[in-house]
Q: What sequence folds into this?
């Protein structure tokens, strides 16, 4: 798809891309934190140790802030299918509408019924009830992720549909649609990545409090749980989930795989480049540092496997921003590798009982928490830019999907509105989260608040 | 099957309006019923921990509309582009204003977010009211099956219309009045003390004012879209919903007179439900009237998804909606009873 700055299609894409990227900063942490909260509530029930309840209470407040921003930024996402992508909605609404409606009906009702009670209602619910509320919220948030990933998987690898008489799509096989192999692999990969975000956030908080010499008992809980889950999740992100995801791309979207690796010419013994800059006009990588044969092996299982290059596909079917896909994919992989190394190091120190005295490592752990957000966002950029120029892979092109009646001017107007609103929302979120961190997990709860209200 | 989904869509949207409508109403009355900072926290606490569950009815309605009537969703959402984003921004600000208030102890910023709360709720009531007016009046559909609705054109109701005109503006105001009365009725049930007393007197006055307004809006609707009254007369379902509405008026009046607040809220909820469902039954089978040429209007059959999709969706929708109500029954038990100023013990709800 050829784009220019006056093209409505481009602005619709930026509109969706901006709002979804911003939105996903919040659910990735809530999905990552949710099972930590369930775990701590469970430990507290089992052992009666109040430190786990304190940990759950503190992180529930952080969770609540993320959840609220996730909800308010998530609602516009669904409606944008109708407002900005009318062509796409009309074409595939009968299929993708199923999972979007299921998300509301199964996941959001569950989450929203229990979230208020979970965050503010510990005393009303009692300990058992509070634990169950945590399970309800965690299940709801992961179900919601599942339905969204099934929706995305249909766009990446459409199955289970038939074409209706008027050319639009109808759902034929709901089992095939929901259990799309692409969806299962992508869900596993994505949820592990969300756990990485959660684990790094928790570890960073533990490192911060330890370096500050504050809340040492709580800090130890965060460091112990965070680094263990962090290592397991970082490993699972790479293997088997990331590996299977790459094989899936190689099998169903070979032109995307070629773009991710900047492979312009098909070959056996295809390389993975550790670093290098794709030059599209001359069709080669500049300054490459290759791992010979690695791509053949990773994508198809043997070094002798033939990997198709970009030159074997019509330019019309090339993703329209190969440079961005290439960098997004490479930075994601590099960060993923670094996460494994950092977490392996931290677990080694923890096993030796020296984590809390390793100042250098604690600094690294504290400063590392933004990077899983970057890696998650880049992973989604790889998936979504890699899907181009298609909205539904092989069936429906992106430039036939946007709303014809909405001009670029309207789109830019609402985009500016979102940028402004989200900027303010981001400041507010950071301020409130900062306050919670400053108050810390040992703040009397909820007594302080009661006095403020009574004033 | 298409009729069933038409009914489900109507049911979900109506449920949303009934549930979130009382939050709009309570929000609009926020400054009138609550004078002190503690009373304002009390009103927010009355809206309670389930406001996002109420909002999910809107999200669910959007999903179901996309699934069951993709053509309606794509035409109407892109056609009302700017109005829809205004709604989304208000929903966003309203959500933040509710949640942030509980985290801030600073007087100045609580007042700021209270103001955001009032204005976003008021604007939402106006916009949903105007949307209802637009459904009754119709939109300027073209031969391509699309339309684009500016905020206003010449305030006329035929041809190249805008979102606001001499019919949709009174309709929007009427909806604001009804939702405010509904919200006041809710607050009478959910609060005690000074907020309760103010809500009682407001609820009585607002519902009285609603009677002449209702007569007026019915007359206007008859002028603008006589088919609707005709549809109501010939369709047995609308007789049923009219009976529900009449019974609700009786319950509402009795409840307000004898201070039986639960009965009053039940009455006002079912009154809204009955009236909106009557409207949906009268509209059927049309989903979108045309102001330009009657042959261009969208009927349910025109917009519906293929039969296989609809059949699959019925199978999961029914258990899902039962589960949705089950969760709330579980939670509601812990939040029953009135919210007072001093009993407001854990954070704000």
A:
């Amino acid at each position: 798809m050829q784009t220019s700055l006056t093209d409505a299609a481009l602005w619709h894409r930026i509109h969706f891309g901006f709002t979804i990227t911003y939105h996903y900063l919040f659910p990735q942490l809530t999905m990552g934190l949710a099972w930590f909260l369930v775990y701590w509530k469970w430990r507290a029930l089992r052992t009666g140790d109040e430190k786990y309840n304190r940990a759950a209470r503190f992180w529930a407040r952080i969770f609540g802030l993320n959840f609220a921003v996730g909800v308010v930024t998530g609602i516009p996402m669904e409606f944008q299918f109708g407002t900005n992508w009318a062509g796409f909605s009309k074409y595939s609404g009968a299929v993708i509408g199923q999972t979007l409606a299921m998300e509301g009906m199964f996941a959001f009702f569950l989450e929203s019924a229990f979230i208020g009670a979970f965050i503010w209602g510990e005393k009303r619910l009692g300990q058992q009830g509070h634990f169950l509320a945590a399970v309800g919220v965690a299940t709801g948030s992961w179900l919601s992720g599942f339905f969204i990933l099934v929706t995305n998987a249909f766009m990446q690898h459409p199955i289970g549909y038939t074409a209706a008489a008027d050319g639009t799509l109808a759902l034929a096989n709901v089992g095939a649609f929901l259990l799309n192999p692409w969806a299962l692999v992508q869900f596993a990969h994505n949820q592990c990545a969300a756990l990485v975000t959660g684990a790094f956030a928790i570890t960073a908080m533990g490192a911060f409090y330890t370096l500050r010499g504050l809340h040492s008992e709580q800090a130890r809980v965060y460091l112990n749980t965070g680094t263990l889950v962090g290592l397991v999740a970082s490993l699972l992100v790479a293997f088997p989930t990331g590996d299977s995801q790459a094989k899936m791309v190689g099998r169903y979207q070979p032109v995307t795989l070629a773009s991710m690796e900047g492979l312009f010419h098909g070959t056996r013994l295809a390389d993975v480049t550790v670093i290098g800059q794709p030059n599209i006009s001359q069709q080669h990588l500049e300054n490459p540092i290759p791992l010979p044969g690695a791509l053949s092996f990773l994508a198809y299982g043997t070094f002798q496997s033939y990997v198709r290059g970009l030159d074997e596909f019509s330019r019309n079917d090339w993703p329209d921003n190969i440079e961005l896909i290439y960098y997004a994919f490479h930075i994601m992989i590099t960060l993923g590798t670094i996460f494994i190394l950092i977490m392996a190091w931290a677990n080694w120190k923890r096993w030796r009982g020296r984590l809390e005295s390793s100042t250098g490592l604690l600094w690294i752990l504290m400063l590392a928490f933004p990077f899983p957000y970057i890696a998650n966002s880049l992973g989604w950029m790889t998936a979504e830019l890699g899907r181009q120029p298609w909205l539904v892979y092989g069936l429906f092109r992106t430039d036939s999907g946007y709303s014809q009646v909405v001009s670029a001017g309207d789109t830019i107007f609402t985009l500016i509105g979102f940028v402004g609103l989200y900027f303010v929302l981001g400041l507010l979120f950071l301020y409130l989260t900062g306050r919670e961190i400053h108050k810390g997990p040992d703040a009397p709860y909820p007594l302080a608040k009661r006095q403020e209200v009574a004033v | 099957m298409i009729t069933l989904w038409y009914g489900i869509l109507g049911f979900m949207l109506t449920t949303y309006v009934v549930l979130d409508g009382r939050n709009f109403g309570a929000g609009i009355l926020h400054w009138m019923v609550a004078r002190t900072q503690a009373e304002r926290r009390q009103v927010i606490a009355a809206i309670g921990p389930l406001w996002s569950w109420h909002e999910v009815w809107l999200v669910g309605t959007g999903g179901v509309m996309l699934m069951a009537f993709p053509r309606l969703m794509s035409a109407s959402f892109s056609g009302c582009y700017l109005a829809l984003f205004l709604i989304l921004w208000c929903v966003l600000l309203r959500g933040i204003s509710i949640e942030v208030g509980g985290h801030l102890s600073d007087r100045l910023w609580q007042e700021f977010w209270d103001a955001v709360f009032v204005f976003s709720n008021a604007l939402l009531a106006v916009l949903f009211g105007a949307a209802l007016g637009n459904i009754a009046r119709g939109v300027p559909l073209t031969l391509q099956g699309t339309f684009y609705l500016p905020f206003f054109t010449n305030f006329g109701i035929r041809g190249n219309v805008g979102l606001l005109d001499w019919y949709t503006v009174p309709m929007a105001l009427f909806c604001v009045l009804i939702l405010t009365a509904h919200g006041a009725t809710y607050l009478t049930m959910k609060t005690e003390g000074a907020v309760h007393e103010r809500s009682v007197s407001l609820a009585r006055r607002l519902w009285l004012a609603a009677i002449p307004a209702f007569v007026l809006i019915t007359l206007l609707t008859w002028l603008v879209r006589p088919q609707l009254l005709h549809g109501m007369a010939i369709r047995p379902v609308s007789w049923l919903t009219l009976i529900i509405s009449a019974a609700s008026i009786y319950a509402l009046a009795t409840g307000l007179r004898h201070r039986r607040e639960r009965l009053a809220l039940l009455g006002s909820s079912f009154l809204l439900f009955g009236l909106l469902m009557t409207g949906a039954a009268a509209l059927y089978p049309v989903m979108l009237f045309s102001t330009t040429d009657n042959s261009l209007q969208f009927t349910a059959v025109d917009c519906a998804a293929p039969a296989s999709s609809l059949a699959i969706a019925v199978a999961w929708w029914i258990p899902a909606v039962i589960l949705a109500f089950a969760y709330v029954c579980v939670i509601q038990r812990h939040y029953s009873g009135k919210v007072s100023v001093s009993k407001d013990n854990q954070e704000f709800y």
Notes: The CA atoms of residues 325 and 382 of chain A lie 5 Å apart. The beta strands of chain A are 161-163, 169-171, 272-279, 284-291, 390-392, 396-397. Chain A has 14 helices and six strands.
